[in-house]
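Lab notes, practical 5.
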Amino acid sequence: MEQAFLVKILLMLVIAIASIAWFRRLGLPAILAYLLTGMLSGPGGFDWFSQQQMQSVAELGVVLLMFTLGLEFSLPRLLAMRRTVFGLGSAQVIVTSSVVVLVSLALGLSLVEAMIIGAVIALSSTAIVLKLLNEQGWLRRRHGELSVSVLLFQDLAVIPLLILLPLMGSESQAANHSEIFIALVKGIVAFVALMAFGRWALPKLFDEVARSRSNELFVLTTLVVATLTGVFTHWLGLSMALGAFMAGMLLGESQYRRQLEADISPFRDLLMGLFFISIGMLLDLTLVVSFWWQVLVILLAVVVGKIAILFGILRLSGESTKIAATSAITLAQVGEFSFVVLALAVNYQLLSSEISTILVMVAVISMGLAPALIRHCGEIIGAFGGMGADVENHSVSPKVRQAQVLILGYGRVGQTVARFLRSEAVPYVVLDLDPTRVSEARIAGEPVLFGDACKRSLLLEAGLLDVNMLVISFCDGRALEEVLPLARELAPQLTILVRTRDDSNMTEFEQAGASQVIPESLEGSLMLVSQVLYRCGVPLTRILKRLESERRNHYHYLHGFFSGQESDFTLEQLHAVALPASAWAVGKRLSQVPVARLRIEIRAIRRSGAEVENPPSDWLLQADDILLLQGKPRRVERAEIFLLGG
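Output from the prediction step:
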């Protein structure tokens, strides 16, 4: 029995993998692939699992989703955009949900069902819209800011919705005013308690965790915080998702936000996949076939209706026709949180399976259409209104200067590089893993982000694909081995400079993708040499030429030194061999000396006070020549014996 269950899980995962690959190739969201997997695996398909079997795991996925949405929710940004957020956002949500409620009541549905359907349709997809706006470079355009304002209010509107849904599902089926008042008071108490405790305790907690430099502890703490806050609000009789959202909102303004997102992302994506699979299990294929025309009619009504409502609101607020139409098309789809609302409504027996199936299909298709609608909104506007297809010329504000250099590590070297870049007005951004250093730098106004450079998502968040140069200023071997190949994979043409202690692994770093490796100890020697030569009267151009030659030859002549009492005999050394008249090598040409077999190098030959570096192979050795040999001590010793005795 257990083996059969495991086989079913394996088959479900295979379907999920194949579906995601297929949908990705078609340019469609992965959410649709999970829903298809749920449809095939659930009671309406192969009937491998029931929706109840997935419920507990799926609920944890919702908690992590809401925690992530909370991280993205910015109170300062909300206050800065309060006019458009609370004006435009509230108008869109209130008008859209009110229209849907009236239509639903006219169709004979109950008030509770109408309110839930209104909330489901009023919400748009934050994940899809933000991703597509960012891809198109429209986030800072006027229609992009208007769209973000509406999405911010929709996130805010989620809070009372999460408070009221459990109440609507109570056994009384019709919550009276006192119950609603009590639920709202509980929500306010939970909000105040979490805000008061969280603002004081959570930053201190994550400061201590970050100082431990343990990635496992950071991940575990993040999961525990998200789950515990959910349990707290659940204990108050509210939704677990509400507590997780508040916890994320509290941490969203901290320096750990990006690291939290990166750490929780794999767990969230996996559990959210299971959540959407469980949503897919709610779909009955026979019902979908039976109600296919209702699905299409409702889909058309939802998309056209949302566009018309938001377009009208924006035109009344004074926006141009182009911007109003573009913003309306951008928000025409149904959002991913609508699935959460539908799942909770079904769980609390507030909606029938027929209605939930129809709404899920409408949401699925609208999200599938969203990428095409947003990417081609200019053409759509031009086709219907003759207003032209250019939606990118409506800039709302001057674009912030984009960073040209990304610095990984903000220690002594990283700060020195940043200081010189700042003096030359070259914009840069820094990623560092020391919480105290990041905190101090951010207070001083430095563009420093907290995070582990080994995380793909953090490198992308820091702007790896947009900068002209990456500077890796730390010398942690493990991190270098992970960061360098990852950065080169993500940005094949990027210039990458790597700082190391010495050049012991220089070749390996270059093979891993470094454009240039700067060994700290050897560069220090070169700087000292340059000062000595300059003060001795050597022309600056000649000095620079010699330094460049050393770097180009991988610091070849900075290796091999005369040994002393405290020499490291594992390193190559220099050794001078004077050739007496009786030496075997006298009268021989250098080509006759088996240098490769002896595994040494003849660096130079001194004759009559003059030194010739890299002597040619046809050089004729004479008595009293002094050969400078470079190699490991034992090899140099064997070479000397050979040169003298043959």
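Observations recorded by the TA: The radius of gyration is 34 Å. Confidence is low (pLDDT under 50) at residues 386-400, 560-569.
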